[in-house]
Design goal:
Blueprint: E1 23-26, E2 31-34, E3 37-38, H1 39-45, H2 48-57, H3 63-75, H4 81-90, H5 96-106, H6 119-145, H7 158-167, H8 173-185, H9 193-202, H10 208-218, H11 227-238, H12 244-253, H13 271-286, H14 290-314, H15 320-330, H16 338-358
Antiparallel strand pairs: 1-2, 2-3
Length: about 375
């Protein structure tokens, strides 16, 4: 029987899976909107709390709505002792992203009514996850450093509190703005790999926690959430700023991939990377740490060379992962926490997409094209 012509879309490239009002990406022109608001405007004028509300509720909050939402996040920052026990047991034995995944898997045991699948109950779970995941990531970081865990501060903003719980120092105004910016820029980005896996899991009508665990797990690979850590490792391998051009030239000659450059969607400069790049240059002028200064200079020189070699000729532009690593390092965030920080930022985007998809849910069941043999003769094992 002859088969119809079949087109395989590897990686589902070019395939639309749902209508959405959450995020618009114009990859050709390097534009990004959350709920219709340009990312540049949100990065400059908004806060993570406001962006989280926008993504979950569909509109910018009034002052009263934002105050109520912010207090709710603050009230949910603490985690059960059992979660800290998980971190203590697995610290040093698993990658921090795997510990985070395990902790989120355990959170349903503290949910008072998992049988309640109402929209209100699920929204409550999304808010709890948004509040608790930065706490968990900070605790993982403290255990890794062998330092005592700090309790959340009710005085600090969502992202500033994370930095305080991780470093033990209340961040200054500039660092508070920078970490909030990174949380905003990572909050949402359409149907990327981790969001898609969240939706695939959710399409079975699995609970919110299970769907988020799928998203966290998908971030583990270096082609997605681990890209910023890989890019930073390259910069560390370069070592000195004056080695940058030779290292990049040699890597390109050997057809090695330069992590942090190129994107499946963007064929222009990633708008998030452009925002972060401007902050990176500003931060470099103010830092007094020679190690951080070297790292930032390497990033800037590598970006300049890559733009000359590949960006303008082949459309391979830097993405946010390239600049995230140096800035996280400047804020004393260890490289193996980059992916968990990504997850703690993106959870609000994952859950917002999940709730939107559930409004018209359909189980994902794609097809594969069989190209093997058929009707083979079975040979008994003693005759093989």
């Amino acid at each position: 029987m002859a088969e119809e012509n079949i087109t395989i879309s590897k990686g589902l490239e070019g395939i639309y899976i749902a209508d959405t009002t959450l995020c618009k990406i114009d990859g050709q022109n390097g534009k990004l909107w959350y709920r219709g608001y340009p990312i540049e405007t949100l990065a400059e004028k908004s806060t993570y709390e406001e962006v989280a509300f926008l993504l979950l509720y569909g509109h910018l909050p009034t002052r009263k709505e934002l105050d109520t939402f912010t207090q709710k996040l603050i009230s949910e920052r603490e985690v059960p002792d059992a979660i800290e026990n998980i971190i203590a047991d697995f610290s040093g034995r698993m990658h921090p992203n795997d510990i985070l995944r395990t902790c989120v898997s355990a959170l349903p045991s503290f949910d008072t009514d998992m049988a309640d699948k109402s929209s209100d109950a699920n929204l409550e779970r999304a808010i709890k996850l948004t509040a608790k995941m930065p706490t968990i990531v900070a605790m993982i970081g403290r255990y890794k450093q062998g330092k005592p865990v700090l309790q959340p501060s009710a005085k600090l903003s969502h992202s500033a509190n994370f930095l305080y719980m991780l470093t033990g120092k209340e961040p200054d105004k500039e660092s508070s703005k920078l970490i909030d910016l990174m949380f905003i820029l990572h909050a949402e980005h359409g149907s990327n790999a981790s969001t898609f896996s969240t939706l695939v899991t959710g399409s079975t009508l699995a609970d919110v926690y299970a769907a988020v665990v799928a998203g966290i797990s998908t971030l583990r690979g270096p082609l997605h959430g681990g890209a910023d850590e890989a890019a930073l490792n390259m910069m560390k391998a370069i070592g000195e700023p004056d080695n940058t051009e030779t290292y990049i030239e040699d890597a390109l000659a050997g057809k090695q991939r330069i992590m942090g450059f190129g994107h499946r969607v963007y064929k222009a400069y990633d708008p998030r990377a452009k925002i972060v790049y401007n902050y990176l240059k500003s931060f470099m002028q103010k830092t007094t740490d020679p190690k951080i200064e070297k790292l930032l200079e390497i990033a800037i020189r590598a970006e300049k060379l890559m733009e000359e070699k590949l960006s303008k000729t082949k459309g391979i532009w830097p993405n946010i992962d390239f600049f995230a690593g140096p800035l996280y390092t400047a804020m004393e965030i260890p490289s193996d926490l980059f992916t968990p920080v990504f997850a703690a930022s993106r959870v609000v985007g994952w859950t917002a997409h999940l709730f939107e998809y559930w409004q018209n849910n359909r189980l994902f069941r794609p097809l594969d094209h069989y190209v093997g043999q058929l009707d083979l003769k079975y040979v008994p094992i003693d005759q093989r």
